[in-house]
Amino acid sequence: MPDFKYGDSTTAQRLSGVPHYVVTAETALREMHRQVGDLVIDERGIVRRGLLVRHLVLPDGLAGTRTVVEFIARELSPDTYVNMMDQYHPCFKAAENPPLDRRIRGDEFRQAVAMARESGLHRLDGITV
What we know:
- The structure is a single chain.
- This protein has one domain.
- The radius of gyration is 15 Å and the shape is globular.
- Strands 3-4-5 form a 3-stranded parallel beta sheet, covered by helices on one side.
- Strand 3, helix 3 (65-76) and strand 4 (81-85) form a beta-alpha-beta unit.
- It is built from 4 helices and 5 strands.
- Helix 3 runs parallel beside helix 4 (106-119).
- The protein has helices at residues 9-16, 21-36, 65-76, 106-119, and strands spanning 40-41, 47-49, 52-56, 81-85, 123-125.
- The longest helix has 16 residues, at 21-36.
- It is α/β, with parallel strands linked by helices and 129 residues long.
């Protein structure tokens, strides 16, 4: 269950101090998907194998959600199970990095979900708005 946090390496470097984030995440996700494929859930709801990708939606589109979901649908599979998370909570130095000084709004989360669906993803979890 890997996270795909940012769709832009410049943002990843600025906010998390991680250089080359996108290429590294994409390479790792491709390999994970190659090894285990799409998520398989049995009749009792128990996961048997497969990839589940988590994506935290950030305020003002900072997570680069469109890029993230388009990569997942195009390069992995439109059947990839994606947990779209809306629980971002500002803390630590968030006040120094607007718009990270606020929670996401409902319309921002709905837009992120719409982007995922538009990209062809249909196995979305975490849709609470």
